[in-house]
Amino acid sequence: QVQLEDSGGDLVHASGSLRLSCSASIVPGAFDYVNWASLRHASGEEREGVAYFRIIDGTTAYLDSVKVRLTISSDNAKNTLYLHMDNLKPDDSAMYYCAAGDYGLNYRNYLYFGQGTQVTVSS
């Protein structure tokens, strides 16, 4: 069983930065071996994966529109995943979720989801 708690969302101006956190309650020692993703869901849009992280070998992947602006990382001792977001744009406004599951940026590959944290970017 995996429980995820998202935090860190806020209202920011365009070009601003945020760091989202995802705290995981998981079987001890399992955090490093799970595949993680950060997803977002904007009103009226389909849910999409923005970042993927396989901690055990450091593999990452990003949605093209967020490359060089978003960085996914982790603090394994704290079972916490982070999404660093720089140079935010109004199009980045969405509910952001962390997810645990299979592989890649397709949200259908994931089984466990946080409750989400809202990011709103004003122009």
Secondary structure topology:
Layout: E1 3-7, E2 11-13, E3 18-25, E4 35-41, E5 48-54, E6 59-62, E7 70-75, E8 80-85, E9 94-101, E10 110-113, E11 117-122
Parallel strand pairs: 2-11
Antiparallel strand pairs: 1-3, 3-8, 4-5, 4-9, 5-6, 7-8, 9-10, 9-11
In a few lines, what is going on in this structure?
By secondary structure, the protein is an all-beta fold.
Report on the biggest sheet: 7 strands, mixed
| Mean pLDDT across residues | 95
Count of helix runs: 0
User: Helical percent range?
Assistant: under 10%
Q: How many extended strands?
A: 11
Coarse shape: globular
State the distance separating the first and last CA atoms. 40 Å
Strand content: over 45%
Order of helices and strands: EEEEEEEEEEE
Q: From the alpha-carbon coordinates, what is the Rg to the nearest angstrom?
A: 13 Å
| Oligomeric composition of the shown chains | single chain
Unreliable segments (pLDDT under 50, ≥5 consecutive)? none
Structural class: mainly beta
